[in-house]
Amino acid sequence: MPLLQVQPTRMELIKLRRRIKMAQRGHSLLKMKRDGLIMEFRQLLAEAKEAIDRMIEKYKVARQKLALAEAVDGSVAIRSIALACCQVQPQFTIMRKNVMGVVVPVVKRERIKKKIIERSYGVLSTSIRLDEAVEAYEDLIDSILEVAEIETTLRKLLEEIEKTKRRVNALEYRIIPSMIETARFIAFKLEEMDRESRIVLKKLKSKKEKVKAL
Amino acid sequence: MKLAVVGDQEFVTGFMLAGITDLYEVKDEKQLVEAIRELLNRKDIGIVAVQQELMKKLPTYLKREVYESVEPTFIAVGGSEEVVEEIREKIRKAIGVDLWK
Hints:
The complex is a heterodimer of chains A (about 210) and B (about 100). Helices cover about 75% and strands about 10% of the residues of chain A. Chain A has about 210 residues and is mainly alpha-helical. Chain A has one domain: Helix Hairpins. In chain A, strands 1-2 form a two-stranded antiparallel sheet. In chain A, a hairpin with a 2-residue loop joins β1 and β2. In chain A, α1 crosses α2 (about 75-85) and α1 (about 10-75) packs antiparallel against α3. The model of chain A has no long low-confidence stretch (mean pLDDT about 85). Chain B is an alpha/beta fold and about 100 residues long. Helices cover about 50% and strands about 20% of the residues of chain B. Chain B contains five helices and four strands. Chain B has a four-stranded parallel sheet with strand order 2-1-3-4, with helices on both faces. Chain B is globular and about 40 Å long. The interface of A and B includes residues 130 and 147 of A.
């Protein structure tokens, strides 16, 4: 471990010991934070899995229904209806929530499903297959919004976990050991200086006595 | 906030029927890159649903940008398990074990 650049004085040693204590406390706190985050993450993961599976399922259904509608009514007809209906946008707002210091988005969904009459194509001139396909897609959009929320939360948590982990490791394997090493170095140095001055004193004393004896 | 959709014609048509107006119909990779670039800079879009097959075709530098962006959030939409491939990889990197399975 590399030593810190310090003067080997008693004051410096006291300061360093204080810093070591603080770093150790910070280290244990960060460790707890990391574990907490991972716990949170695991809970969310189960939810995410379900949501994504749901989305995949809905996507398959929607694709199938649309294909059926296109097969029966002709893809050109479907396309022209699609081009005509662009009035009602699904609306949602993104809010923020705090999970252990990580800001995550919460998607507030509202009114994605429309009633048949609210759709902007004529009900009479189109087939039931089209209605079904549209409904399936509205369902899918709802699901996508849900997945978006969860996936973003997962991503943010992951980032935070990685950051915390890096900090914990840096403290544990680098900063704290090098501080301890430095403290030990200073302690040795002080002892050494102590011994040295004692020898000097002894030498002086013996010299004095020799002079006295003469 | 609005939802945007990026995909081929078939993919886009369904969302069009459901009333989405921010649609990016792409035919080749050049158009795809252009669409993604534009979406990254748009402020009114909250979520982007990208066809999963197209997500794979993105050049690497753009892929990273897409996955890191939070506003808008990019979501791969598709019919197979592959939509979670990227996030799985990330979990493995951050936590050290593959928690997905």
